[in-house]
Amino acid sequence: MLVPIHYGIVDKGKLVMRDNDRFHIWLGQFNGEVEVIVRKKVNKRTDRQNRALHLYFTQVAEALNEAGYDMKKTLKHDVDIPWQSETVKEYIWRKVQIAYLRKPSTTQLTTKELDKVYEVVNRMLGEKTSVYVPFPSLETLLEQDNNSI
After folding, report:
1. Residue ranges per domain, the chain?
2. φ, ψ (nearest 5 deg) of residue 17
3. What is the pTM of this model?
4. φ and ψ at residue 55, rounded to 5 degrees
């Protein structure tokens, strides 16, 4: 049986449901003993972090290409392939993310996990290629927005 997730807030030791009436209607279908699981909600990455992440992929691709590190040199393939935003995401970021956090999608990352993956990727790129790309700041995102207008 697929069980919907209900959200609430713990206030002074009491659980206050966001949609209390709907929750109690749903709960009314059960009789007898039930199992209740309470977890702390973690914040998923923000839209701004998502845009920064994809800008980072683009900046890494450009930096690796400018430094002469095509995909073959970095990943040991047989053909010279220039880096692109999506190849940075798939062949560098996602590989680290899955190995480190066991999460296949960037949409599953919390704000703290995004920082953790970046630190590993940044260290690896620096050690292998001496390419360092800082994670985009709010100013960088605003500048990108202004340039696209």
Report:
1. 47-147
2. -80, 145
3. 0.57
4. -65, -40
